[in-house]
Task: structure prediction
Amino acid sequence: MADESIAADLQAAFEDLFHTLWDGAEPDVLISDGHPGRIDADDAVALMGVSQEEVPGPISATRRVREETLTVTVVISCYRVGGQDQQRIVDARALKLLGDLSNHLRKTDPTLGGLCVWCFRTSFDLEKSADPAVLTDGRLTEINAKFTAVARIRTS
Result:
């Protein structure tokens, strides 16, 4: 149980998990804390932020506890040079990267090494680029995913 919000530790745990899952992946995945800026890689995963809400936790005679719910935003971006035939390929790659992350949290480490009570994916949006400048050269898919974590905070 943490004495303060686990937001900073949660962000670090996600970035470490990205490296565990994708360092040396084929094809390479660019890992970024925040927007990566100019992207030279075909595949990128970025930790875009965290939000937090806090409520009273379980009642205890010996200490006061608060419970925090954190939402981590992750953006996955996949691009391939080529025409419309590449759209299914980038969609599948983006969904595979999302699945790698989601399945690890669900099946292997739902508490992120004991950092939180639980953490799992709660939503995602997949968007295909409609930008004519992108479509001239290739196909781009971006997934905006939300992961929710619950942790307990000791308040006294």
Summary: The longest strand covers residues 65-81. The chain has a mean pLDDT of 91. Residues 127 and 142 are 5 Å apart (CA to CA).
